[in-house]
From TrEMBL:
Molecular function GO terms recorded: copper ion binding; hydroquinone:oxygen oxidoreductase activity
SUPFAM superfamilies in the cross-refs: Cupredoxins
Identification of the protein by name: Laccase
Manner of cofactor binding, per the entry note: Binds 4 Cu cations per monomer.
NCBIfam families, per the entry: laccase
Length: 590
């Protein structure tokens, strides 16, 4: 039965009052309130106009700004055509999984014509994170920055910049993104590539009908600017550079790193970075570029380049063409990407200490693969009539009809299994160039999760594979936690020699880590956040194909280590996010 808008508001108010009383002692900082109106808006890019889902009519969406330790309430009014959820990417939400946002993991979509209020509990995060839709591919146009300032009475661990600027990268599709997704998943073939990348909503000078609206960042000579960079691109890593200007990286995924001076950065979808740049060159116009990085063999990526202009204020003769970065790596420069990512180190200061887990109680070895699933009568558009799929440890995740959190909390059986494996079903040379047979390319489908006891110390080694000659970088994102990236390397992980290379002194903390093509990365975290927490590749096409799973972290023995109770109202699980009662291609069948 559908909940009326008025009844929904009444339940929201009741839940808000109960929740506010319950959380009075939990919130340590200030409380902020935001309204998000989801609606269709018209935008013109690349010489054509289309309607797409936005928040408050903006692309990118509005910035949220708060201090470390604050609490933020966001009331989402869905006036779109289908159900949507919102995720607070990089925010741990301690004991508060009800408001994390991924559809069918912690909630069902907010139905069109209703509203839902998210409560966002900030804890140890400091720096730039972001928010985005977590339903189907709606994050392509529904996303924005979430800036977490130092706690009241404290300041940055670097000289305070003169000004700050949010920079958001995104993908632009001329066609309706949800239609493209439906076609790709319905027929099982490759997904359509984007038509452009954007910087703060604009493609820039190198696209048709775009140079009049190129984003311009005005700067004053001698000033230092903090760039709060968000990569919301759908399926592509990006190199970023500003012509003739060095960049100093000071933050990654809402935590601080030792200042790293570079001429470019590499940032994956899902990642955020805080970067200082000083306007110390001759006053002129300088291009800021966002250029794709791709290390796979399929070569299926949008090969265009987005641009903005880093423009000095003052009296001077503007150049006919802005200065172009001579130092930005090429599309396929694996060495440049690896060099950058391996240089990042945790700040590890007395004010921002590290606490790397040393006594591991649970070890997981997870293969990250592109593969296939069989179709009846070889009727799909993938290789040999099969459906393209992706997997973790050869399991392609399937969305249940009831979200996992509700099923777990209310002890409702039949919607998930607790047998996600700690290692792949078979061990072989995962980086071989001859992985084309069914015994390695065909994955199993299921809604399988991993259960962890409270306070378990977890080590996960992600192993990139070259199954179907489809090896490429995969940005793996974990909800509910920040983890330490203790090691990374190329080739097959060696559990004897490779751990000897781990950085247990100052590894960076992150929520999204790139797994290099035909290589591995190891993370560690303590399972001290009870709830249900999603883990997935942040290439949306890979997530749609099944490269995801979830962790259930059980309660501890105290009230402070127990999941908070659910709000009075949660969106009902009566329809899926887009197509009513019809299941998506990757939704579990009963």
């Amino acid at each position: 039965m559908k909940v009326s808008f008025k009844m929904n508001l009444l339940l929201e108010l009741l839940g808000f009052l109960l929740l506010s009383e319950m959380l009075f002692c939990i919130a340590q900082g200030n409380v902020h309130y935001y309204d998000f109106l989801l609606k269709e808006s018209n935008f013109t890019r690349l010489c054509s106009t289309k309607s797409m889902l936005t928040v408050n009519g903006d692309f990118p969406g509005p910035m949220i700004r708060a201090h470390k330790g604050d609490t933020v309430y966001v009331n989402v009014y869905n006036q779109g055509r289908y159900g949507v959820t919102i995720h607070w990417h990089g925010i741990k939400q301690p004991r508060n999984p009800w408001f994390d946002g991924p559809e069918y993991i912690t909630q069902c979509p907010i139905p069109a014509g209703t509203n839902f209020t998210y409560q966002v509990l900030l804890s140890s995060e400091e720096g730039t994170v972001w928010w985005h839709a977590h339903s189907d591919w709606t994050r392509s146009s529904v996303h924005g920055a979430f800036v977490i300032l130092p706690a009241e009475g404290t300041t940055y661990p670097f000289p305070k910049p003169d000004e700050e600027q949010v920079i958001v990268f995104a993908s632009w599709y001329k066609e309706d993104v949800e239609t493209l997704m439906d076609e790709a998943l319905r027929y099982g073939g490759l997904t359509t590539l984007s038509d452009a990348y954007t910087i703060n909503g604009q493609p820039g000078d190198f696209y048709d009908c775009s140079n009049e609206t190129t984003y311009r960042m005005s700067v004053d000579y001698g000033k230092t600017y903090l760039l709060r960079i968000v990569n919301s691109v759908m399926n592509t890593d990006m190199f970023v550079a500003i012509a003739d200007h060095n960049l100093t990286v000071v933050g990654w995924d809402g935590s601080y790193v030792k200042p790293l001076e570079v001429s470019y950065i590499m940032i994956t979808p899902g990642q955020t970075m805080d970067v200082l740049v000083t306007a110390n060159q001759s006053p002129s116009y300088y291009y800021m570029l966002a250029s794709p990085y791709f290390d796979g063999q399929a070569d299926d990526f949008d090969k265009s380049i987005a641009s903005a202009i880093f423009q000095y204020n003052g009296n001077y003769t503007p150049p006919s063409i802005p200065v172009y970065p001579s130092n930005i790596p090429g599309f396929y420069d694996v060495g440049a990407a690896s060099y950058y990512t391996t240089k990042l180190r945790n700040l590890a200061s007395p004010e921002h200490p590290v606490d790397v887990p040393l006594n591991v109680t649970t070890r997981m070895y997870i293969t990250v693969s592109i593969g296939m699933m069989h179709c009846p009568n070889d009727s799909c558009a993938g290789p040999a009539g099969n459906r393209l799929a992706s997997s973790l440890n050869n399991i392609s995740f399937a969305n249940p009809k009831l979200d996992i959190l509700e099923a777990y909390y209310r002890h409702i059986s039949g919607y998930y299994e607790t047998n996600f494996p700690d290692k792949p079903p078979h061990l072989f040379n995962f980086t071989s160039e001859d992985l084309l047979t069914d015994n390695v390319t065909i994955s199993d489908q299921g809604t399988r999760v991993k259960v962890l006891n409270y306070n378990e110390t977890v080590e996960i080694t992600f192993q990139g594979t070259n199954v179907m000659n489809s090896g490429e970088n995969h940005p793996m994102h974990l909800h509910g936690f920040r983890f330490y990236v203790v090691g990374t390397g190329v080739g097959n992980f060696d559990n004897v020699t490779d751990p000897l290379t781990y950085n247990l002194v100052d590894p960076p903390e992150a929520n999204t880590v790139p797994i290099p093509k035909d290589g591995w990365a190891t993370i560690r975290f303590v399972a001290s956040n009870p709830g249900v927490w999603y883990m997935h590749c942040h290439f949306d096409r890979h997530m749609s194909w099944g490269m995801d799973t979830a962790f259930i972290v059980k309660n501890g023995n105290t009230e402070e280590s127990t999941i908070l109770p659910p709000p009075a109202y949660m969106p009902p699980c009566e329809t899926d996010s887009l197509y009513g009662p019809r299941q998506s291609m990757f939704q579990k069948e009963e």
